Every structure is written in structure tokens, then in C-alpha cells.
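Case study.
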Amino acid sequence: MADFLYQLLLSLDATLRIATPLILCAMAGIFTERSGIVDISLEGKLLSGAFVAATVAAFTGSAWLGLGCAILAGIIMSLIHGFACITHKGDQVVSGVAINILASGLTIVLGIALFQQGGKTPSLAKESRFTPMEWWGVEMLDSVPVLGVLYRQLISGHNLLVYLALLAVPLTAFVLYKTRFGLRVRAVGETPQAVDSAGISVSLLRYRALIVGGALCGMAGAYLSIAQGGNFVKEMSAGKGYIALAAVIFGNWKPLSAFFACLMFGFLEAATARLEGYEIFLIGEIPSQLMQAIPYILTVLLLAGFIGKPHPPAASGQPYHK
Amino acid sequence: MSKPTPPLPRWADIVLLPMINLFTALFLCGLIVLAIGENPITALEVMINGAFVYKGALGYTLFYTTNFIFTGLAVATAFHARLFNIGAEGQAALGGLGATLVAFALSGLPSIFALPMALAGAALFGAFWGVVPGYLQAKRGSHIVITTIMFNFIAAALLVWLLAGPMLEPGQHSPQSSLLPEATWLTKIHEILAWFGIKVAATPLNTSFLLALLGCLIFWILIWRTRLGYEIRAIGQNQEAAHYSGINVTRVIIITMAISAAFAGLMAINQIQGVSHKLILGFTAGYGFTGIAVALMGRNHPIGICLAAILFGALVQGGTELDFEFQIITREMVLLIQGMIILFSGALAYMFNPPLARFLARFLRVRTKEKNYG
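After joint prediction, the assembly is written out as follows.
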């Protein structure tokens, strides 16, 4: 039993590490989608952020510069998205697909040109990464039975970006529900006409939502390549942007629910790794591919209204014509 | 609002504007090549040689073209009903599964029977993977874009599971099935030409290219010459109006997605029945996503789709040539070009519309005036 609990604890610890980029991207998706822009380009922004973070950190040796430039890269990709589907009223889905393909092409082409390692970036030294932070008092609490382990494994010992992701959730909720900007973002995603007739620029608001989203995706990218990992590998986002999008939908476009969806999807992945090869009583071995497909299957079921009722932003996907 | 723009002449809309968009995309890619220290003109030359000039190049280009025609038709069919089928990738994967399962089930039967059934298997399995999102969109209101994205991932997981487990060729380590019975293989075009005494280089180009062209014809008849096609376009124009004119919107949406996904499923036969003769993990290689670009560039018309498919086929084939000629430019350059083309021909398709229309209007007006005075 104690062993089981310890395994569970390790799984929870892994959950948090897997969920971090999902959480950041999901919060990004909430901002853009709530402003009425379909954002399937989370994946591309995440990938760009990861590449730029690792590249800048490799050249300058500074993790902080890497993070900053990753945020910039995410914002630039967002601005391209905005230029296409806000300024020129292009199709948001097409633009999103374009950004995703562009990001995978650009990161590989530039990666090979810069480092000649087949699309990888060089491994970073410890100083140019965000490394796990040990919290104050870990040693002291170690002697306390349950709390000590919990504190050491689950609360302490993560890198900065994990804590930033956890902070991003209440911040997103606060901005969305308690500030004027958030109110307007939500309004512009429901009835842009009303926002426009109040004399507020629909385009500018959507651009601002996109910029916030781009920054968050950039952070998630930096997490992949200079915090969790030690370099950039091609296609390292590996569908995480889409899982984050699934989490946004599963969380009904609400920050807290999306956060829990991210944790659930993260836990599924962590559990998959641990369950591999284990026979479960009466069920037998669960194929890991089935576990990997669960987030997508759940999202389809939710969208179809089999688990609760989805409430997507009403003006989602439609360019605003004045 | 800025002042109203004059309408663009039809020829400019069909020919000039797409050309400008394409060249903008290529120009930007050229700048990137320049930025990483290579000569974009040389790169372009290498790609053109690799796609059309070298021995057998054209055969390879048309082989890839076949994939793009199928996925382009798939996306375009759905587009006519204003449905965004982003799931051609997953539908093609399922099509491959269908083609393989049917081929194994009918092993021992003569080609004349087994081959058409295997092709039907590809179309049916593909169609199934489109019908479910179509049903969920039409009946339950789930957004088809999201559902089809999710279905791509579910299809991928399904194929990994099958190819790493139940369908894995014994003794094989990379995820692939055993070899299909020979009766279900498609004939290569160079073999057919050899029967007539015409000698061409051996390439993977096979009879599914002709099937793809037939698919274009069927697509044209379906969309513009049948009642169903009329209903599809009516729904695309205005779903409410279509509903009130007595069209069964739910039914037509599901059928549209079935046809769309069947086209995507047929892409698999070019790869599996045509060349590899077995189901290999990841054989769809992004062709489904590029189908979006093909449909957009081809303006959802079979002739346009064929032309766009040739362009993308040439890009893929020419891109492989980059690997041999350059140190730091690889075939992944093609991804970048594809992304740029989707951005400029798709999302920014009408960016150059107003300036071009104004320019042409002024230019044409001057011309007519001259004529009047002359």
C-alpha cells in the first residue's frame, strides 16, 4: 500500500511536469478563443517558442534571454495569425494550419542552417536552463512522515516555469472575469457588434488577446526546450498544442476547468508510462495507445454533448465585418 | 471603411491573383534561403530539375501528385458544403487500414475481384472516419474542425496499436504489416507503357494516377451536374435557405463527409497498393494537411486541384533533390514553402485583391478611353 501511494505520488509529480506546457497553452487558447478567434495554431506557436528559446539560450547562455525571445516568437506568430484573420479577414482555421506547418518547416530549416545537427540544437549547460528549485525547509520537513515526502516531491523541486504555469491559471481567471480587458474580451467573442457600437475597436481587442496568447505559448515552448528538456528537437511539440486545445474545449473555455482538464490529460500520460506492461485485475493490460487517445475521445464526446453541454464563444470563427 | 473597391475581372481572379499569392510565398521562402546563406535561384533550379528534368523525375512528381489530387478533392468536396474537413490525414490512414484488411481477407482470389474490393475497402474505411464527424456536426452540433482534428489523433493511435501489435509482421521491428497478396497490387505506368514498346524510367507512378483523374471527373459531375451536388452547394451558400427549400441538411452533410473522406481514403491505394504493398506507419506523411492547400489554391475546382496537386507533387519531389545538392537545405524546406503557400493562397488569399482591383480598374479604364478616342 505504501508502495502504491509512493507510486501515485511520483505519478502526480510527473503529471505536473507533463501538464505545465498544456496549462500555459490552454490559458493562451482561452484568451484567443474567448475573443472569438479559433486557435488551432497553439501547436505552431509552442513549437516556435521552443526553438527560439533553445537557440537563444545556446548562443547567449542565458535562460532568461531564451525565455524572453521565446515569448517574442510566440507573439510574432500570433501577430501573423492576427494579420491574416483580423486585418484581412482570412479564414481562421486555414491561417492556423498555415502557422502550424510554417512553424515546423521554419524551425527545422533554421535549426539545420544554424547548428548543422539535423534540426537539433546543441545541448545546453545547466546554467543556461531553468533547473529545479529546491524550496526552503525541504531538509527540515523530511523527518515529518507524510508531509515531508509530499513537500519534497510535489511542491518543491520544480523549475520556475512550472510555478509560472500554476500562477497563470488564477491570473487568467482574474483578468478574464475581474478586469475591464477581460470583460471586453469575453464580449467580443460573444457579440462583437455590441462591443463595436460601444466605440471599442474589435480588431484591437482581438489583437491584444492574441498577443497575450502568443506570450503564454512562447513560455510553454521555453519550458519544453530549456526547462524540461535541454535542447530543441524537431517537432518536439508533438501534438501538445492540440491536446491543450482539447483541454480548452473540455474545460468549456473556462480557466479553472481547462486547468483540471490539463491535469487529467497529464495524469493519463503519466499513468500510461507507469502502467506499461502491468496487468490490471480483470481487465488485463491496457494498450498505451488507448490511453494516449483518451483525451481526444473525451473531447469528441464532450463536443457532441454526451458529457455535459459545450458553450463555445458565440462569435467564434467569424471575422468581424464592420 | 475605405472606399469601395471595384470588382476584380474574372480572369484576374482566377489566374492573376493566385499567381501573385504564389509568387509572394515563394519570394519570402527565397528570402529565407538567402538569409541562411544559400542562393535561392540555385535552390529553385535544383528543385525544378529534380521535379521535371532528370530521368524519371516526372514519374515521381506525378506519383506524389496522385496523393495530392485525392486529398485535394477530399477537402474540396467538404468545402463546397462549407464544411472544413481537416481530417483527411486520419481518413487516409483508415483508408490504408481498409485497403490492407480487405486485401488480406481476399487473399487467394483473382486480381479482377480482389483489387476492386481492396480499393472499395480503402474508400469505405476512409468514408467511415468522415461520416462520424459529419454525423456529430449535423446531429449534435459539434464543430467539424475540432472533431476531425481529434479523429486524426485517434486514427494515429489506432494504427500505432495495430501495427505495433496485432498486425505487425512477425520478426519485423519497424511498425508495418506483412506483404499484401500480389493480386491486389496496382500496375506501374512504366510497365504499361512498356507493353506498347515505350521505354520510360521505372518510377512508382501507378494506375491510381488514372483513378485520381477519374476522381476529378466524378467530382466535377457530382458537384455541378447532379441533384446532390446542387444540394451540397446550396448548403454551402446558405444552410438556412437550403433547409427551408426542403433540402435535408443533416442527410446531405453526412453524405458530403462520406464522399469527402472516401476521396481521402483512396489516397492510401497510391501508397499501399501502388508502391509499398504493405501498411506502413505514417504513410500519410502530411498529405492530408497539404490537401487543404491544394483545395484552396485550386479554388475547389478539379482543374485547379490538378494544377495545384502537380505544384505540390513537384515541391515534394524537387525537395528530395535538395538533400543531395546542399549541405544546409534539406527536404524540410518544402514544409516551409507549403506553410507559406497556405498562408498566402489561403488565409491571405484576398490581401492583394483591393490593390490589384484598383490598379486593373485604372489600367483598363485608360485603355477603353484610348480606344474611344482612337
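Observations recorded in class. Residues 111-140 of chain B form the longest helix (30 residues). DSSP finds 15 helices and no strands in chain B. We will return to this complex in the next lecture.
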